[in-house]
Write a structure and sequence with these properties.
Chains A, B: InterPro entries: Creatin/AminoP/Spt16_N, Creatinase/aminopeptidase-like, Creatinase_N, Pept_M24, Peptidase_M24B. Two copies of one chain form a homodimer. With 409 residues, the first copy, chain A, is of the alpha/beta class. Chain A contains ten helices and 14 strands. Chain A folds into two domains: 162 residues, 3-Layer(aba) Sandwich (Creatine Amidinohydrolase, Chain A, domain 1), CATH 3.40.350; 234 residues, Alpha-Beta Complex (Creatine Amidinohydrolase), CATH 3.90.230.10. Chain A is globular and about 70 Å long.
């Protein structure tokens, strides 16, 4: 399949089939290898599907089986995946077939052998993984989909002391978004905005939670601006009534009831780039507590967004919010938000910047953050969020909708 | 929230809010502890969200953060999760608050400390995890969402040699479905059947892939028989045209084209129980190759289902299929199917029985299998599947639809 935008003979333009031009991937690889050099890593084992997509474009629902990308200190990365997935990996990944290795089907889900043993052997054989007394191989040892058995199989080939933690090296390279990535996020923002409008409209007394979700999922796939929607890393969440006091409940087929509030958390997604968004809807006049909390949080959000400028440490954004809600007598124990961009199930957070008191990372233009203000109380809750792209002059709201509690009477 | 069906004073009937009565969970725990005793495990660390749900009913999108259930050799299990999720865990889990432990928010995504260190310390403190020279703790070391860093944190508290692999102990307890579980699967089957009908209807020349997915996802959430649909562990997959030769592509916003075939793989889901289903649709007269392959696979499927009886080793089902397609000159390298039941992203397979030559497990009544016949060729592909419940007299098709290639002209 052809590549867009490079203008080189092997890269004719076909914008529809490939989300990014080759040059973008070359730049990403270079920045990862520069970071590897700073840590003297001889190779990097990348397992997080979001990092595989970032570095190669590889995009398939194959991450439920062991797979990885191995990035050498110099030269091109190689993809290792199940044989049936290796065969079609070139439909999405820019890699030539010589850099794609499929492990045999009979290694799948066996108690005695593990695909990561095969992967390590092959990678050593083709010279990708250094071995010996000085070898320093880093791996994503806290990534989803890298199991202890996979790790132990890799370790058995490399030897104790030669397998290090990458400390989310690729994730940190991803924090500043390129202009092309920012465009993807703006499309995702429109999908999020449109879908939240539909979700809020469909919240009605007597309607079942699953009916609301049906509307949300329809809109998420449809997309916006004639550009399709992609699947979200997290399904729509609808904590309702009493259960709104707990953040990660999904949905049931119970009907929505009068005098209850529902929090909606969803994302618009385009080419794996996520824009999450949360709002709260009250069916009937809200309680005094809910109304007061909503007011404080909206004011706190304003303060947080005003504080968000390039050059400011991320923890200052947290401080601006807590200062405001503190005046109303509220506290919030959990972080206020996190860096966003590419996402795969089960998480759309980037696992880098968190808006919390310990976060000393200094904000830069091109960063993208989900400021999610969840107040989970005893038997009720309130959520409000904004996803923003940080520009030189401050945050650009990616899904600008009213920030008040929605009251439907 | 009340419990259905037990008839005891603390468990009044409320069928809507809890999928299973307490007695069902007591039985499941007992069978797991019996299996633990056979291996002399002093404790079992359960990480797979499907196993958490099976043993306690706990159901929330919190598995992107470290969490586990620790089952002692005797007595009640305890749940360990992030503080914000621990607070509302009782909405779905049957456990009293004294058996739910929330780790502090400041342990989230830190490079220096890991929640599994806190979990291990607390579990040792409350006497759940045995320590000492004879301690034998088993953990799900190939489960999704158990990272190497989590494993190493746990190992550091228990000591080398005391942390063993559970070899999917809980998954194997799950293979025979209770009558109540079978009822959930029948509802899921109706959702799958209805959704596949809608998917096939919506496949049309010029319609975008994402528009078809919008219809599928709408129907998946709506459910059937007035019972709601739950989220699938895998999003709808639509490998189309040339890319139908690769199994795990998701969708794009490209329009469907005449003279191309699309394979559809989706699931109906109810209370986390999955019934997956695959069909192939040809827009226009199929190629000779596709038509011939479809005929051979349908005949092979009949042979496989006829061979599927209690008392038969699972590998015989594989042999029956390969014998038929071999007569047509086809082979299939990958397994022919797998055990199904509860599923969480990223996989609806149970990680137990595989229909392949090495599988000696003897089939029993109450097992549920997805027989998925994917033929991934060079530049084209064909898929057909059936999800079945095995009864004394043979397989019950959970989503009975015609088994032929669908041709739309």
């Amino acid at each position: 399949m052809p590549w867009p935008g490079d203008g080189t003979p092997d890269d004719p333009t076909d914008v529809e089939s490939r989300p990014f031009p080759r040059a973008e991937y070359r730049d990403r690889l270079q920045r990862v290898q520069e970071a590897m050099a700073r840590h003297a890593f001889g190779a990097l084992v990348v397992v997080d599907p979001a990092n595989l997509y970032y570095l190669t474009g590889y995009n398939a629902w194959s991450f439920y089986m062991p797979q990885c990308l191995i990035v050498p200190a110099h030269g091109e990365p190689h993809l290792f995946t199940r044989a049936m997935d290796a065969q079609g990996a070139h439909y999405t990944a820019y890699l030539p077939q010589s850099q794609i290795h499929g492990y045999p089907e009979d290694l799948v889900q066996r108690p005695d052998v593990h695909p990561f043993g095969w992967i390590a052997d092959r990678a050593i054989e083709v010279g990708l993984l250094p071995v010996g007394v000085d070898a320093r191989v880093a791996a994503e040892t806290d990534a989803h989909f890298f199991s202890p058995r996979g790790y132990l199989a890799l370790l058995s080939r490399l030897g104790q002391g030669h397998l290090l933690d990458s400390h989310e090296l690729v994730n940190w390279v991803r924090v500043v978004k390129s202009p092309l990535e920012q465009d993807k996020m703006r499309v995702a923002g429109e999908i999020a905005q449109q879908t939240m409008r539909i979700a809020v409209d469909s919240i009605e007394v007597g309607r079942r939670q699953c009916d609301v979700v049906a509307q949300i999922q329809y809109s998420q796939a449809l997309g916006a601006r004639k550009l399709g929607g992609d699947y979200p890393a997290i399904v729509p969440m609808l904590p309702t009534g009493e259960t709104a006091g707990t953040p990660h409940l999904t949905w049931s087929d119970l009907p929505l009831r009068a005098h209850e509030a529902t929090t909606i958390e969803l994302a618009g997604v385009h080419h794996r780039y996520h824009v999450p968004l949360a709002r709260t809807v009250s069916l009937g006049r809200p309680s005094h507590d809910l109304d007061r909390c909503a007011g404080a949080v909206t004011e706190g959000l304003q303060a947080a967004l005003e504080r968000m400028r390039p050059g400011v440490p991320a923890r200052d954004v947290h401080a601006a919010f807590t200062e405001v809600i503190g005046r109303y007598g509220y506290t919030k124990a959990s972080r206020l938000g996190y860096s966003i961009g590419i996402g795969y199930p089960p998480d759309w957070g980037e696992h880098t910047i968190s808006l919390r008191p310990e976060e000393t990372t200094v904000l830069k233009a091109g960063m993208a953050l989900h400021v999610i203000l969840g107040m989970w109380m005893d038997g009720w809750g309130y959520e409000l969020s904004e996803s923003v792209l940080l520009g030189d002059d401050g945050p650009e709201r990616l899904a600008p909708l009213p920030q008040e509690l929605v009251v439907k009477i």
